[in-house]
C-alpha cells in the first residue's frame, strides 16, 4: 500500500536521511560501556530510503570546551558535503574543494 504524497515524510521520499541510534536507550548504552565499546556510544547512522547507511555521526566535547562533529562516510568521501549554518552565515565543505588536515 502506497501512502498519498502528502502523507510521505522526508524520510519516505528520500529528501532526508533517517537517524538510527546505535544505542536507542540508556540500557543499551550501559551494555556498550560494560563491553568496552564506549567509542560507539552516541553514534548515529543516517540511512537513505533503501535503509543503507550514508554517514555515521557523533559529537564530542574537547578539553577546551569546544564541540567537534565527527562524520564517518559509509561510502566514498566524495558523497558527503557539509553545510554549516551559523549566525554569521553559511560555510560549505565540499569534497572537491577541501584539503586534508
Features:
101 residues; mainly beta; four-stranded antiparallel sheet; 2 helices; 34% strand; globular
What does it look like?
With 101 residues, the chain is mainly beta. The chain has helices spanning 10-13, 26-34; strands at 18-21, 44-47, 53-61, 67-73, 82-86, 89-93. The strands form 2 sheets. Strands 1-2-3-4 form a 4-stranded antiparallel beta sheet, with no helix packed on it. It has a two-stranded antiparallel ribbon with strand order 5-6. The longest helix is centred in the N-terminal third of the chain and has 9 residues, at 26-34. It is globular and about 40 Å long. The model has no long low-confidence stretch (mean pLDDT 86).
Q: What does this entry show, briefly?
A:
With 101 residues, this protein is mainly β. The chain is built from 2 helices and 6 strands.
Average pLDDT taken over every residue:
86
Sheet having the most strands: 4 strands, antiparallel
Low-confidence stretches: none
Rg, nearest Å: 17 Å
Give the distance, in angstroms, between the N- and C-terminal Cα atoms: 49 Å
Structural class: mainly beta
Dominant shape: globular
SSE layout and pairing:
Blueprint: H1 10-13, E1 18-21, H2 26-34, E2 44-47, E3 53-61, E4 67-73, E5 82-86, E6 89-93
Antiparallel strand pairs: 1-2, 2-3, 3-4, 5-6
